[in-house]
Design a protein that fits this description.
Elements lengths: L9 H14 L16 H4 L7 H6 L6 H19 L10 H11 L1 H17 L7
Length: 127
């Protein structure tokens, strides 16, 4: 859990919620790892060309390196120390949402071209 070093905020709430859900057998047992960010905006953001964003956070765009560190060092260390399964919940889902939002208009253009080409060549589209 990013921001896991903030013990007065989210981490205890997430840990207590997971514990209650595990005890109630609503979810399987899991390990919650709190990661204290040294530079939150650097570690949790993708690159930006928006000047206003750069004013708020001059150092951004480190999310790929942060994720790579989790995969390369953190997960193997946890697997070595604890009994684990292959299931992981990580920042990958957030990255997919980020990529979708960042490239939404490109995706929309591609879908429009596919739609037009399909209709032009006499195809049908079923939704």
């Amino acid at each position: 859990m990013a921001d896991g070093g903030i013990v007065d905020e989210d981490f205890p709430h997430i840990a207590n919620t997971l514990s209650a859900l595990i005890i109630a057998k609503k979810i399987p047992p899991m390990i919650l790892v709190g990661i204290a960010n040294t530079q939150r905006r650097r570690d949790l953001t993708g690159p930006t060309e928006i000047e206003k964003d750069k004013e708020v956070a001059p150092i951004v765009g480190g999310s790929e390196k942060f994720r790579a560190l989790l995969k390369r060092k953190l997960f193997p260390e946890i697997n070595k120390r604890y009994r684990t399964t292959k299931e992981k919940v990580s920042l990958e889902n957030l990255r997919q949402v980020y990529l979708l939002l960042r490239h939404f208009f490109l995706l929309l253009k591609c879908l429009t071209i596919i739609l037009l080409l399909t209709l032009h060549f006499g195809g049908t589209i079923t939704i």
